[in-house]
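Lipocalin-like domain-containing protein structure dump, as promised
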Amino acid sequence: MTSAANLLGTWRMLSWTRTSVATGVVEDALGPNPIGYIAYHADGRMMAFVQRRERLVPDGPLTPAQKAELFDSMLAYTAAYRVEGDRVIHTVDGSWNPLWGREPLIRPFTLDGDHLVISGAPGHDPVTGDEVVYRMEFERV
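structure tokens r here:
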């Protein structure tokens, strides 16, 4: 059984895919090779940040459409966390999307040395609303 101590540290995202529950189609959640990190701290806090590698780079003040595009091309949140068996549970208290935090995020995971996979929990894509299953793969930094 994995303890919270095994998750401590910073993890760099290698990939993030989503599988449509309705169709079974697998896609990159934020494009290929996203920039992302998740960090678990000994005090029971965690932080996550992920962005599309190729993001809009505006050349002036942001328009409402550009703001929406930038919002849809990243995610970030902070949370308390705990480990229960093969699940890590994030209790979100601050997020780029206020819909996250209404309920704890329950994430099944596997850990093999410096390789972490968080996968298996169905959810709703915040951009499309589709029911999906995410798979995130990380390596310890």
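Residues 56 and 69 are 8 Å apart (CA to CA).
lmk if u need the other ones
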